[in-house]
From TrEMBL:
Record has GTP-binding as a keyword: no
Protein's membrane topology: Multi-pass membrane protein
Lineage, broadest ranks: Bacteria, Pseudomonadati, Pseudomonadota, Betaproteobacteria, Burkholderiales
Protein name: Sensor protein KdpD transmembrane domain-containing protein
A cellular component term, taken from the record's GO annotations: membrane
Source organism, top-level taxon: Bacteria
Amino acid sequence: MQVSNSRRWAPRGPRRWLIAAAALAAAFIVRSLLHPLLGPVMPGTAFFLAAVLVESYCGLGPALCLMLAGLCLADYLFVPPYGRFDVIDASDVRLLVSYPLITIAIIALVERLRRAQYRAELLAAVAQSRYEMLLRHDNERLLNRRATDDMHRMLHHIAQYHHALVLIKALDPANSASPGSLVAAAATATSNGVIDDTPFNTGIAYGAMHAHVHREDLARVSDRLTPGHHRMRFLSADRNNWRSMECICERFITPSGEFLVLRAED
């Protein structure tokens, strides 16, 4: 993968130039303190180290400027004759040749390494982002598969218990499919399923058993239906008495919405 902005690893703004100026001042102070001990030996070493450190943290521009400023200070103050530019001897030539070559070579190497490091960090960030996207898509795929399986399970449940079905209620009628259409789809799998999808309330479709349920119990579960067991009164076979029966309500989460299916237990 090509990363075109790998050269932009260094920080921007005036702060890096202030750091370069501080590093130049520190190198000058250190070399001045060591001058009585070293004399004309290694006049540019302190400035070389400062340039490499500045390159490592602030980038190529400040490091080159520090190198040039250090070359001038080292040749003027720490190469004999001290404090003069009008006399050029072998010491000046050695400094003017060796110091820039070594410094530029090390700076170029550090710059290459820093660009490679920044490129690796960018690629790692892109890989992390793509990995998170793959995980998110995989989770969405698994959720969709689970919802589809739940839809198939609900339709099979309706077809299996169509004789005992009391009602189906959509928990969010505005964003869910019609419960009546789901009941009708399941009823096509059976040869003798009588379905009444005339809604008693919004988002509710009734099955074959709802006509035998007491109207008060039917109104109660239609308004406050929750998953679990419910005790309801059903009309007896002679249609003269009411008998209490246990009903079970199950919740299904499908791509078409969330539904509660209430059926009478055999």
